[in-house]
Amino acid sequence: MSRVAVVTGSNKGIGFSIVKLLCQRFDGVVYLTSRDVERGKEAVKKLEELGLHPNFHQLDVAVRSSVEIFKHYLEENYGGIDILINNAAVVDAGFKTCSFDEAKRVIDINYRSILTMHELIYPIVRNGGRILNISSDCGHLSNIRNKFWIEKLSKQDLSVSDVNEFVEWFLESKKNGTFNVDDIANGASVAAYRVSKVAVSAVTMIHQKEYDNKNISINSMHPGLVRTDMTAGVGFYNVDEAAQTPVYIVLDAPQSLKGAYVWFDRKVIDWYDYNADYYFKMKTITG
Ligand SMILES: NC(=O)c1ccc[n+]([C@@H]2O[C@H](COP(=O)([O-])OP(=O)(O)OC[C@H]3O[C@@H](n4cnc5c(N)ncnc54)[C@H](OP(=O)(O)O)[C@@H]3O)[C@@H](O)[C@H]2O)c1
Prior knowledge:
- With 287 residues, the protein is of the alpha/beta class.
- It contains ten helices and eight strands.
- It has helices at residues 13-25, 37-49, 64-78, 100-120, 147-153, 160-175, 191-210, 239-242, 244-251, 283-286; strands at residues 4-7, 29-34, 55-58, 81-86, 125-134, 217-221, 261-262, 268-269.
- An eight-stranded mixed sheet has the order 3-2-1-4-5-6-7-8, sandwiched between helices.
- It is globular and about 50 Å long.
- The relative contact order is 0.15.
- The structure holds NADP nicotinamide-adenine-dinucleotide phosphate.
- The site of NADP nicotinamide-adenine-dinucleotide phosphate (NAP) has 30 residues, from helix 1.
């Protein structure tokens, strides 16, 4: 049975380069997935021109039926998968403020999709498999300034319902107009994105604990500031450079690397260090 790697949101950006590098290095079938079939097929064509041969499947991580269809397809054709990189994400349309609807869109795509993947796809990850959530420096706990939530998210017995409560607290504050910019670092720029990515990194550690008795590693990472559409082309790294550490984590890192929050230089960072300087600063993009 073929080994299988899947990368979500990989028709462009960092995900596309992860697929490219996996096609070069992974001994198995690599799935480039995209919510839009045309954009996905165009991306596959680009890699074929380089002599690489990813497979393609439609996947919108925010649409449950799309994830279900892909799960059944993978089960029927391969019996399971070996590597899953949850890469798909969006950022707040306005960097300074965002409406409730926009905040919900960001939370649904970036965070709640991980819960859907956990429910439907994690159970078909084979023994020895690896799952990597592409988080962000916006996903470090130091992005949160509200004392109640710092304390709650730092609990050793943190549960998925605690993390859900955290995102609900944020969404409620957006809905009823009580959102306080002092609760999120850096004047609460890209607040929904920060909340979604903090939730992604928090839930990564919870999911790892759940899978501890299986030989599956689940980590999250910050890929660095990378020149993509998400950053309007601003960044210190190109997408091929940015793909190196994610691929290292799923192919080369020791299987004992579990529940970690990894920086783009491969260092494991203390996610709980809420006073640290790891949080994202808007001026790195705006100058
Ligand atoms: N670039 C950076 O500096 C940076 C820094 C920290 C973290 N990250 C993280 O790195 C990852 C990749 O970001 P990027 O910079 O490569 O962004 P990007 O160029 O904007 O690519 C994002 C990808 O996600 C896809 N996507 C969005 N919503 C989706 C959905 N519902 N279902 C499936 N795919 C969806 C997009 O597809 P469409 O083409 O259809 O929109 C696109 O393929 C993200 O998790 C991001 O948060 C990036």
